[in-house]
Write a structure and sequence with these properties.
The complex is a heterodimer of chains A (338) and B (119).
Chain A (H helix, E strand, L loop, with lengths): L2 H15 L16 E8 L23 E6 L14 H13 L7 E4 L9 H11 L7 E3 L12 H7 L9 E5 L2 E5 L16 H11 L8 E4 L18 H6 L7 E5 L6 E5 L2 E5 L30 E9 L4 E8 L16
Parallel strand pairs in A: 1-11, 2-3, 3-4, 6-7, 7-8, 8-10
Antiparallel strand pairs in A: 1-2, 2-11, 5-6, 9-10, 11-12
Helix pairs in contact in A: 2-3
Chain B lengths: L1 H22 L15 E7 L2 E3 L2 E4 L4 E6 L8 E2 L14 E5 L4 E6 L7 E6 L1
The chains are: A alpha/beta (338), B alpha/beta (119).
Chain lengths: 338, 119
């Protein structure tokens, strides 16, 4: 990692620290382009760091683990913004497999496909088969529900789930809930969880100790980023009211193809990069359509997210990594196109 | 005063005649004010329908064309019509046989809304 990158991380940490909560050392985020994101779970607070530095140093204590978030692979997309989305997904998987500490599992936060076609899901499965982490958790994006109310998606990835595909699971003391906010969308609205799912979530969280670290993941952001482009979820406030009593809540989303984050009390919100193509920063383009960047810069605006959970540190670290080194240019997605 | 009444009569008479003709089932008499029944287009560009409000005559076939790099749908809010997902350059057509206002949206990106007014 270059010094420039570390400076950027430090600057971002400084910004985050303005809310009065000391996250330095465990919350670092990198706005890179083109890959995924590594999350470190350490006592339930998320932190993001660069792949190359620090990762692995904190790991190793009993109960520590990491998982990786990938998002918006849009298999089937073939427009100029990225004519080969399968190759960039493969690159993301290569990055994951090269991580110094092997993630326990992968979370895909939706838009697996471009058009919900069986062949697109087949291609996705084929690429994901090569991941060293064999367990993959999915939630659908709106692109995965384009035909037959998401039947194709649910048959493949929704076994054992409720309603339009929501579910929860526990891993080494952390409780995860995968939510669906892309089904039955109403005219003029944004993302929607719906009454049935909200009731389920309330019930699912009831009775759990407030010290249990909670991770909510869904495709469309569960916080309002830009209503004009529908970048938010109409009834997310209700869902978030159920997690208020917990000491550590991490919300992971995709959909907007760029890193955004916010810390509100005990709740950390984070959106991941796409593995397929970038989208413009809110309001910087006529619409949220795919953003074309020079071919040699594409992998800087795609990425993965590594999340690390450290029992000793009582926090969760989030590390965003682009598919390619951002180099000396600004690594903030959206800035690249301006 | 008389002049004023004459003016009113002059203005009112054609309107009354037009209304009578409409009632009599001869809308052609008012054709100059009405959109003609034919074909009309709505373009989908940058996550929006253009024109957002389209006014057409009864019997008009409206064709939507998706010109975005992202798939969209055209779905009547009241369940009157519903397209399959339309990828880049794909079209959807619907013929409006009854007068009324038909609000619709993209079920993939519900912030995208439009309406067809059929007269």
């Amino acid at each position: 990692m270059t010094n420039k990158k570390q400076d950027l991380i430090d600057q971002r940490l400084q910004d985050l620290n303005n809310d009065g909560v000391d996250r330095r050392g465990f919350l670092k985020c990198m706005a890179w382009a083109g890959t995924g994101m590594v999350w470190t779970m350490a006592g339930g607070i998320p932190a993001s760091r660069a792949f190359a530095k620090g990762h692995g140093k904190d790991a190793g204590k009993k109960g520590d683990f990491s998982f990786v978030q990938i998002s918006d692979s849009h298999i089937g997309f073939n427009k100029p913004a990225n004519p080969d989305v399968t190759a960039t997904l493969q690159k993301a998987i290569d990055e994951i497999n090269a991580l110094p500490s092997k993630p326990d599992f992968i979370i895909h936060t939706g838009d697996l496909s471009q058009l919900s076609k069986p062949g697109e899901f087949d291609t996705l499965d084929q690429v994901l088969k090569g991941a060293s982490a064999k367990q993959i958790y999915f939630v659908p994006g709106e692109h995965d529900m384009l035909s037959d109310n998401g039947e194709e998606y649910l048959q493949r990835y929704g076994k054992g789930t409720k309603g339009s595909g929501w579910y929860s699971f526990d891993h080494k003391g952390v409780h995860f809930a995968g939510l669906v906010n892309v089904a039955n969308l109403k005219a003029g609205g944004m993302g929607s969880l719906g009454h049935e799912q909200l009731e389920w979530l309330e019930d699912d969280l009831k009775g759990r100790s407030a010290s249990t670290p909670i991770v909510l993941f869904a495709h469309i952001p569960l916080w309002t980023i830009y209503p004009d482009w529908g970048w938010g979820t109409d009834d997310s406030e209700q869902a978030l009211s159920y997690v208020k009593r917990f000491g550590s809540v991490t919300v992971l989303n995709g959909h907007i193809h760029q890193i955004m984050q916010k810390v509100e009390g005990k709740v950390s919100f984070h959106t991941a990069m796409s593995t397929a193509f970038p989208q413009p920063a809110p309001g910087t383009a006529p619409s949220a359509g795919p953003m074309k960047v020079p071919a040699d810069q594409l992998q800087r605006v795609l990425g993965i997210t590594d999340v690390n959970y450290l029992v000793s540190g009582r926090n969760l670290a989030v590390i965003d990594s682009p598919l390619a080194d951002a180099g000396p240019t600004t690594p903030v997605p959206g800035a690249a196109a301006r | 005063m008389n002049q004023y009444k004459v003016w009113i009569a002059c203005l009112a008479a054609p309107a009354i005649i037009a209304v009578l003709l409409l009632i009599a089932g001869s809308p052609s008499a008012a054709a100059s004010d009405q959109p003609s029944a034919a074909n009309a287009d709505v373009k989908i560009d940058n996550f929006s329908f253009g024109p957002q409000t389209l006014t057409v005559a009864v019997g008009t076939t409206v064709t939507w064309t998706n010109r975005d790099d992202i798939p969209h749908t055209v779905v009547s809010t009241d369940g009157v019509f519903k397209s399959k997902v339309r990828d880049t350059d794909e079209k959807f057509s619907y013929t409006f046989d009854k007068p009324g206002t038909y609000p619709y949206y993209c079920s993939v990106h519900p912030k995208m809304t439009g309406k067809v007014v059929v007269q």
